[in-house]
Design goal:
It contains 8 helices and 7 strands; from the N terminus they run αααβαβαββαβααββ. It is an alpha/beta fold. It has a 7-stranded mixed sheet with strand order 3-2-1-4-5-7-6. The N and C termini lie far apart (48 Å). The structure holds S-adenosylmethionine. The site of S-adenosylmethionine has 22 residues, from loops.
Length: 242
């Protein structure tokens, strides 16, 4: 059911009785999209256009080129959105599976894949329960997703579960500032931004979740892009024990 409507029926006049009011509540389904669906659709539109639509900043693009260069074989991308990372994988020896929960992203991703001449496998679902067997992936890609997931620890557990021994979890994420006025601003804007940005938190200390996830080797680089609120970033790779 997309929407409920409440109808107030006119009061019933009983003979000789004092006028009484009755309220009849009818719940009915309509095809009108709910605000949540509208937000998801709008967010998908904002993220469309591949790496250009995602406004990949120059620094993050450099990190992606470097980190994705070592990927090969079966690669699962969680939260691929409109397919911003597909262009980086074109021509590589990669069998790509995307796990994207927002259905309104799917047409944008498919359009980007068609533009690049790719035919990737796209699945619905969330990264907290990745729809893939244990030890079935050589790599997991995660860019600007850990800011939005409902349970970072569960997502990282799942990434480790689906990775083969020696497999790589590559990430690029915007994160919390370490303190100061920027962190205060991130904290203040967070409640509103969760609504506008489809669940995105500007103030997550994602590097802590990565350090606690249980990767055998973890390389994290902190860098800053030229953006208000979302400037602080991390990028790197976690390797699963062989
Ligand atoms: C800011 S967009 C980033 C999209 C893409 N990774 C990129 O770098 O352009 C966040 C993406 O994460 C997805 N997402 C949110 N929660 C998720 C979850 N629990 N599991 C998997 N994907 C999720 C959203 O639907 C959206 O596509």
């Amino acid at each position: 059911m997309d929407c409920v409507s409440i109808l107030a029926h006119p009061p019933v006049q009983r003979h000789g009785a004092r006028r009484s009011f009755s309220l009849c509540i009818t719940i009915r389904s309509t095809n009108m999209p709910s605000p949540l669906h509208l937000r998801k659709r709008l967010f998908a539109w904002m993220m469309s256009g591949g790496s250009e639509g995602c406004a990949d900043d120059t620094l993050s693009a450099q990190y992606k080129r470097r980190l994705f260069a070592d990927l090969h074989g079966d690669v699962i991308e969680i939260g691929p959105g409109g397919g911003a990372n597909l262009a980086y994988l074109k021509g590589r020896d990669v069998r790509w599976i995307g796990i994207e929960p927002n259905p309104y992203m799917h047409p944008h991703l498919k359009a980007e894949a068609a533009r690049l001449g790719l035919n990737p496998e796209l699945r619905s679902g969330v990264a907290e329960h990745i729809d893939a067997p244990d030890a079935s992936a050589d790599g997991v890609i995660c860019t600007h997703v850990l800011c939005s997931v409902s349970d970072q620890a569960a997502v990282l557990r799942e990434a480790l579960r689906v990775l083969r021994p020696g497999g790589r979890f590559v990430f690029v994420e915007h994160v919390a500032a370490h303190g100061g006025a920027l962190r205060t601003a991130q904290n203040l804007i967070a409640p509103a931004w969760r609504i506008i940005g489809d669940g995105c938190h500007p103030n997550r200390e994602t590097w802590v979740a990565l350090q606690n996830a249980g990767f055998e080797r973890l390389e994290i680089e902190h860098y800053r892009v030229d953006a208000p609120i979302f400037g602080p970033h991390i990028a790197g790779v976690g390797r699963k024990e062989i």
